[in-house]
Design brief:
The structure is a single chain. The protein is 35% helix and 23% strand. It starts with a helix and ends with a helix. The radius of gyration is 25 Å and the shape is globular. The protein has 217 residues and is α+β, with helices and mostly antiparallel strands. It is built from six helices and five strands, in the order αααβαββαββα. It has a five-stranded mixed β-barrel with strand order 1-2-3-5-4.
Length: 217
């Protein structure tokens, strides 16, 4: 009899523990893991962190971060592969050329492909607010020379605002002397507007894992 009572007590205790576990379990769905390339996510988070230095009163701290970011860009952004970006605009304004093309003195009519990348991809975050995105510009002659550039132009001509593209190449920004320099972004409020130097671009199709579109962008 004692054994039966003990068994019943254990069963009641187990059921009670299970009920408590269910009652207090956090049922909030976890945000979907960012499936973009890890190098892209790291870059975006780094920009987000350094953007906060726009309001710092410590000039020494700011300059140290500028120097560190310039080195990071030279070492780690010279060869990006498979980054996902969103088309926001295609214009032919000479004044909108990226810094690299401006300093290089690219002559003749150009197209500027303007892309953007949200920093955080979460339902609770305003998708493309000025503090949650990085903008990129790729400048290309309207009549490019060479098969690679001509192929890029063919792809660009098929793009529309809102399309997701997969890009490879380099990210940079240069000063008037043609040296890598991101310091100007530490002095102004708003999204960083960087140079994209393309090696390859493709429109994200049904066979690609379109993470941005999957989460509603």
């Amino acid at each position: 009899m004692t054994t039966v009572i003990s068994a019943c007590q254990n069963q009641i205790k187990q059921e009670s523990t299970a009920a408590d576990s269910t009652l207090f379990k956090d049922t909030t769905p976890e945000p979907e893991k960012d499936a973009r390339p890890t190098t892209q996510v790291h870059f975006l988070n780094k920009v987000k962190a350094d953007s906060e230095l726009q309001e710092t009163s410590d000039a020494i701290k700011r300059d140290m971060h500028v120097e560190a970011f310039n080195k990071y860009a030279a070492d780690s952004l010279k060869n990006i592969t498979g980054w996902e970006m969103i088309v926001t605009e295609i214009n032919d304004n000479d004044l909108s050329m990226n810094s690299f093309s401006s300093v290089l003195g690219l002559a003749g009519p150009v197209y500027n492909l303007v892309l953007t990348s949200p920093i955080k991809v979460e339902a609770s975050v305003d998708s493309l607010s000025i503090d949650n995105r990085v903008d990129f510009t790729y400048t290309l002659a309207k009549s490019p020379k060479g098969d690679v550039l001509k192929k890029q132009l063919e792809v660009i001509k098929t793009l529309s605002k809102g399309d997701v593209v997969i890009v490879s190449g380099a990210i940079t920004h240069v000063n008037d002397q043609g040296k890598i320099d991101f310091s100007s972004f530490y002095d102004t409020y708003g999204p960083w507007k960087l140079d994209l130097l393309l090696n390859d671009i493709s429109k994200s199709g049904s066979k690609d894992y379109q993470f941005l579109k999957k989460v509603g962008y």
